[in-house]
Structure formats: C-alpha cells, structure tokens
C-alpha cells in the first residue's frame, strides 16, 4: 500500500474545508497538523500538502533523523473535469472523487488509524480507500473498527 485515499462527494467539496477537517481530526487524535503549503493560481485553489506528526512543527524541524518519529504527509486535491465518475467502479456512485490522500506512511498504520477514526467521526459521508484494493471503508465501518481491539490487518483486508 502506498496511499490511503479519502473519497469525498463532489457537490459538497471545498478543499479549504477539507484542510480544516484534517486539522480538527489531528487535534482530536493528539497530533499536530504542520507544514501546510497551499497552492493557488489567482484565487483558484490548485492543491495543498502538509504533515501530521506526533510532535509540533518546531520540534519536527529540529529533528535531523526522523526514522523514529511518527508522522505522515497528506495532499489535498481540487476537483478536475475527469473527477466526475472517477470512482463509480468502486463506490457505485459517480459523485465521489479522490479528494485527499495520505502518503509517506512508513508502516505507521496504528498512528494513521488513530487519525482516521477521529476524521470519520465528523465526516460520515466520506469513504476510505487503499490504492491497491477493490474495497473501501465507510465511516460506519471505521467507527465499528474503533470499538474493536486494534487489528493491524485493517489496511490490508476489510475486516468489518
């Protein structure tokens, strides 16, 4: 698995709100949402990227060897013309698209899971998909998983 993808409804999507949702979930998961870089052309949102970390931005920047640090990066995408119908094959609904993703995972699946649970508490219409599988989790699935003992297979097989 190289990416964890958040599928969002096209008609309700705002990249700025998506960034705020990530910040809110990070705070609730006791993580820091840092190093956010937004790209705009004129007043049009193009993309954004950032990092979710177990330490604040100042500490993160001061650590040279980040091998033992828990963090991952994320990207926020804009709606493009080819976004419509791009995930119908998976969701059976043409209104969802690849809005956000998590990369540079570094095998921190439990750390990511902690964030994902908080994210889906407030984003009940979104889906979570792993880029190399043919299934996805709903918010309801993620919240069910959060009530069970942690299972490291959650990202390699659908367990609810």
On the 0 to 100 scale, the average pLDDT is 90
Query: What is the CATH topology assignment?
Result: TATA-Binding Protein
How many structural domains are formed by the residues?
Answer: 1
Shape: globular
Largest sheet: 7 strands, antiparallel
Low-confidence stretches: none
Number of helices: 5
Q: Could you tell me the strand content as a percent range?
A: 25-35%
Give me the count of strands: 7
Using only C-alpha atoms, the radius of gyration works out to 15 Å
Describe this structure in words.
- By secondary structure, the chain is of the alpha+beta class.
- It has one domain (4-58, 68-155): TATA-Binding Protein, CATH 3.30.310.
- 29% of the residues lie in helices and 30% in strands.
- It has 5 helices and 7 strands.
- It has helices at residues 15-28, 57-62, 88-91, 109-122, 139-146; strands at 4-9, 32-41, 44-53, 71-77, 96-103, 127-130, 136-138.
- It has a 7-stranded antiparallel β-sheet with strand order 2-3-4-5-1-6-7.
- Strand 2 and strand 3 (44-53) form a beta hairpin.
- Helix 1 (15-28) packs across helix 4 and helix 4 (109-122) packs across helix 5.
- The radius of gyration is 15 Å and the shape is globular.
Fold blueprint:
Blueprint lengths: L3 E6 L5 H14 L3 E10 L2 E10 L3 H6 L8 E7 L10 H4 L4 E8 L5 H14 L4 E4 L5 E3 H8 L14
Antiparallel strand pairs: 1-5, 1-6, 2-3, 3-4, 4-5, 6-7
């Amino acid at each position: 698995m190289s990416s964890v993808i958040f599928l969002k409804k096209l008609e309700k999507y705002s990249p700025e709100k998506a960034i705020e949702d990530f910040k809110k979930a990070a705070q609730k998961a006791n993580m820091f949402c840092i190093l956010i870089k937004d790209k705009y052309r004129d007043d049009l949102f193009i993309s954004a990227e950032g990092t979710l970390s177990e330490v604040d931005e100042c500490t993160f920047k001061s650590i040279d060897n980040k091998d033992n640090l828990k963090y991952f990066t994320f990207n926020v995408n804009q709606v493009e013309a080819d976004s419509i119908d791009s995930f119908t094959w998976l969701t059976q609904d043409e209104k969802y698209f690849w809005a956000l993703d998590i990369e540079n995972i570094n095998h921190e699946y439990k750390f990511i899971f902690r964030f994902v649970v908080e994210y889906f508490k407030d984003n009940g219409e979104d889906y979570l998909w792993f880029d190399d599988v043919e299934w996805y989790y709903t918010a309801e699935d993620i919240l069910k998983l959060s009530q069970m003992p942690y299972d490291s297979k959650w990202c390699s097989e659908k367990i609810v």
